[in-house]
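Thread: Modeling a multi-component assembly for a lab meeting

Hi all, long-time lurker, first post. My supervisor asked me to bring a structural picture of a complex we are working on to next week's group meeting, and I have zero experience with this. I have the sequence lines for every component (685 residues in total). Could someone generate the structure of the whole assembly? Inputs are pasted exactly as I received them:
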Amino acid sequence: MIVQFLVGIIIGGIPLSVSLLLAGLGEMFTQRSGVFNLGVEGIMMLSAFIGFFTVYTIGSPILGIIAAMAVGALMGLLMGLVSITFKAEQGITGIGLFMFGWGLSGTLFRVYVGGVTTIKGIDGINIPVLSKLPVIGPILFNQNPLVYVAYILVPVASWLLFKTSWGLKVRAVGTTPAAADTVGINVVKIRYQSLVIGGIMAGLAGAYLSICQAHLFADNITAGRGFIAVALVYFGRWKPSGIMGGALLFSMAHSFQRLIQVYGINFPYEIAVIIPYVLVIVVLALTWKSQSLGPLALGKPYDREFRG
Amino acid sequence: MKNNEEKKKQKQERLLNLFIVVAALLVALFIGALLFIIAKGNPFKAYSVMFTRPFTSLFGITEILVRAAPLMLVGLGIAIAFRSGILNIGGEGQILIGAIAGAAVALAFPGLPKIILLPMIFMASFLGGALWGGIAGWMRSYLNVNEILSTVMLNYIAMQVYMFLLRGPLIDPKEVSYGTGVPQTAVFSKSAWLAKLIPGTRLHSGIIIAIVLAVAVYILLWKTTIGYRMRAVGIEPKAARTAGMNVQWYLLLAMLLSGGFAGMAGAVEITGVHHRALESISAGYGFSGIVVALFGGLHPLGIIPSSIVFGLLIVGSDMMQRAVNVPASIILSIQGLIILAIVSAQIFLVNPKYKEKMLWILGFNARLKNRNKGERR
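Re: Modeling a multi-component assembly
Sure thing. I ran the full set together rather than chain by chain. Output:
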C-alpha cells in the first residue's frame, strides 16, 4: 500500500516537473546574465495559448510547440527592450510582462475559442518491453517525449553554461558587467541572447502544459508555475542539477497533494493545494544563505556611462 | 532666492513626471489598439466607448468612484512599499485576508452600533492585510527572502485560505440549509454597512475614507521622521544603515503598512459594495494597484487622480465588452503594457542626457540645461 502510494507519487510527479524544469533552466541563463525575469509566468501563459491554438486550428503539435517557442522568444525580446535597453527596474517589468501575457492569453482564448475544448496534443510514448518492467517501467519508460527532452536538457544546459565560451561570457556579464565590457564582451548582446533563450524555454514549458499535459487551454493554466520556476533558480543555486532537484521536489509535493484527493483521504482540498506554494516559501527561507552565491549583478541594469 | 529656484525646479520636475507618465499611457494605449485589432474589435470604437460612455450616466460616474476606492487604497499601500525599496506584488492576497478578517468581525458582532463596528472591521482588515504583508516583509528583512517571490506565493496561499474559510467555517448558513453551497458569508447586519453617498447607486463613503487616508500617507511619508527614514531606506539602504537607521525594521514596517492598506481595500469592498464576503471580491485590484501606484508617480496625492483614471478604465472596459464584443480581460494586458511603458519611460527622468532633452521639449529654458551640466559628477 505504502509502496504503491510512493510509486504513485513519482509516476504522477515526473510529468508535473517538466514545465518547472524547462522554465527554470531558461530562467537560469537569464539570471546568470544578470537579468531577473519575473515575466516567465506571463510568457508561459501566452505560449501555452498559442501552442494550443496552433494545434486547435492546424492540428500539428510540432508546429504548436514551435509557435509557442517563437512567442516565448518575442516575449523575451520585449523584456529585453524594457529592462536592458530602457534599463527599467526588472521586478516591476516582469510584473508588467506577466499581466500582459495573462490578459492577452485570456482575451484571445475567449475571442477565438470560447469554451473548454480538448485537442489531440502529444501523448506519452510506450517504449516496448522496457515499459512493462515493474515499478521503473512506468516511471522511466512510459513518459511524454518532452519529458525526455527536458531531462536531456539538464546536462546540455550545464555544458553550455560551464564548458563553452558563450557560457563563460554569460557568467561574466552577470557577475561583473563592467569588467566583461572592458575585455570586449558585448554585455547588451549577451543579456538579450540569454533573455531570448529563457523566453524560448518558458515558451516550451507553456506548450508542454497545454499540448502535452492538459490537452486543453484554460485561463490561468499555469497557476503560478512560472513564478515557482523563478524561485527554483534561487533554490537550485543557479545550477541545472539544483534546479532539476527543486523541480522534482515541488512536483512530488504537488503529486502527493493530488494523490491525497484521489485516495479520498479526509483532508481539506484547499489546504492540500497550498502545500507546494508553502514549500516554496519555506525553502526560500531555509536557503537564504545560498543567495549570496547568486550572480552579483543580478537585477542591476548595466549602464556604460555610469558606475553602479 | 535659492529657495525660490528650488521650488521652480521642483515644479519642473513634477511637470516632466506628469508629461512622461501621460506619454507612456498614450504609447500603451496605441499598442493596445493593435491588441484590439487582433481580438477582432474596432479600436476607435472600443476606446471611445471606454473613455466616454461611463460619463453619460449617473451609474457610470458613481461606478468609477466605487472602483477607485479600493484601487486607491491598494495603490497607496504599494507606493509605501516601493518608496521604501520593497516590491509588494502581494496586494491580491492581502486584500483577501483583509476582507476575510473584516468579515469575521462583522459576523461576530452584528449587534454593535455602527460607530464602533465599522472601525473594528477596518482595524481587523488592516491587521489581516498587515499580517500577510508582514510575513513577506519579515522574511525579506531577517531571512533575505526575495519579497517578490514570497508575496506571489502568498497570493496563491491566501486565495486557498480565503476559499477554505468561505466554503467552511464562515459560509452563509442559508447556503448550507438550501443546499446551494455558494461560497459566501451571510449578509452583514446593517451596522456593518458603509453609508451610501447617493441613494440608488453603489457609491459609498469608502472613497472619502480612501482620500483621507491618501492625505494621511502623504503626511506620514513627507512630514514625519518615520516616513523620512522609510524613504531613505528605499533610496540608499547602505547610507541609511550608516546613518544609524534600523533598515530591517523599516522594511518590515513598510510591508506591514503596505499589506494593511491592501487589507483595508478588502474592508471597503465587503462593507461598501457587497455587504458580505464572496468569491470574486478582489477583481484583480492587487495587480491594478501596482499600475495605479506607478501612474500616480508613487506619490499619495498623485494616486488619487490615478486611481480615478483606472477606475474609469475598468468601468469603461466593462461597457466596451458589451459594445464591441471584446472580453474585458483585454484591459489586464493593456495595464501590463502601461506598466512596461511607464518603467521604460523612467530613463528620461534618470539619465540627465535624455532629461535635458525632455525639459527642452517641454519648453524650459537653457539656463537649467547649463546648471544641470554643472551638477553632473
